[in-house]
């Protein structure tokens, strides 16, 4: 079977409602669509992988650590609500990093997909702020939003009596985004400006022009990357 036919079949079979080009064989996912698709991903997919860095005091100082975590899309600008437990390695790494930086990646489900590499994924990079002094209204809002996405988390919400572990509300604010929509011939691959992501919750934005001056360089990098990808694709035996 021709590679493009296989790709189209896998796109038709997409389990979640991402905005894709109507005719994916003639048009590629745009940056504006990619920004909205990233917002759909963080809403539809409940878990992600959190990457942090071991602190200087550790035997593994400076080395990356990544593990599955929960997030909840409780902010209209795409910041993520998190529950941090000091018992977790990720939380310890965050607290000991002066910038409180993490990367958090979310990917489309891959079950039953012929080539999981054809599925969308996004890496959200930013810093984590613990929310110690929020109002009880805001705590209630976060609890409702978080348990809507993670009913099981009711047992360890911050402040829950008899919770097995001490926990804190926190928020990931995003300052850099890297998105891979799927294979590069039909999908956007590259960075997404945070301001575009922030306003793409409800729909695909029209006429957005990136203020970034790196566009030309990014374009070239993208072509190089896609050339590599095309070569690799031809090696894949389905
Ligand atoms: C999103 O909202 C949070 C909370 O108000 C704020 O701290 C963050 O800077 C905002 N991010 C963007 C990209 O606007
Ligand atoms: C996160 O980054 C912002 C912008 O760089 C900074 O103002 C803020 O203090 C940082 N927050 C933490 C908890 O480090």
Automatic annotation (TrEMBL):
The keyword rRNA-binding does not apply. Residues 30-198 form the CREG-like beta-barrel domain. Residues 1-17 form the signal peptide. Keywords: Signal. InterPro entries: CREG_beta-barrel, Split_barrel_FMN-bd. Coiled coil: none annotated. This is CREG-like beta-barrel domain-containing protein.
């Amino acid at each position: 079977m021709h590679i493009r036919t296989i790709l189209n079949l896998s796109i038709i079979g997409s389990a979640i409602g991402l905005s894709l080009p109507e005719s994916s064989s003639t048009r590629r996912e745009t940056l504006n669509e990619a920004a909205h698709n990233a917002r759909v991903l963080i809403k539809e997919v409940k878990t992600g992988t959190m990457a942090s860095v071991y602190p200087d005091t550790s035997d593994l100082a400076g080395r990356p650590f990544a593990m599955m975590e929960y997030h909840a899309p409780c902010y209209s600008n795409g910041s993520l609500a998190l529950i941090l437990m000091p018992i977790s390695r990720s939380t310890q790494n965050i607290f000991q990093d002066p910038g409180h930086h993490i990367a958090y990646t979310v990917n489309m489900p891959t079950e039953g997909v012929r080539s999981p590499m054809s599925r969308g994924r996004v890496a959200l990079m930013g810093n984590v702020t613990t929310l110690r002094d929020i109002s009880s209204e805001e705590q209630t809002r976060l609890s409702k939003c978080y348990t809507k996405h993670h009913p099981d988390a009711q047992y360890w919400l911050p402040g829950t009596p008899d919770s097995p572990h001490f926990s804190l509300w926190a928020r990931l604010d995003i300052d850099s985004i890297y998105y891979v929509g799927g294979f590069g011939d039909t999908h956007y691959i590259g960075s997404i400006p945070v301001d575009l992501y922030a306003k793409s919750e409800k729909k695909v934005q029209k006429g957005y022009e990136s203020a970034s001056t790196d566009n030309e360089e990014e374009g070239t990098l993208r072509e190089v990357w896609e050339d590599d990808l095309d070569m690799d694709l031809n090696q894949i035996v389905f």
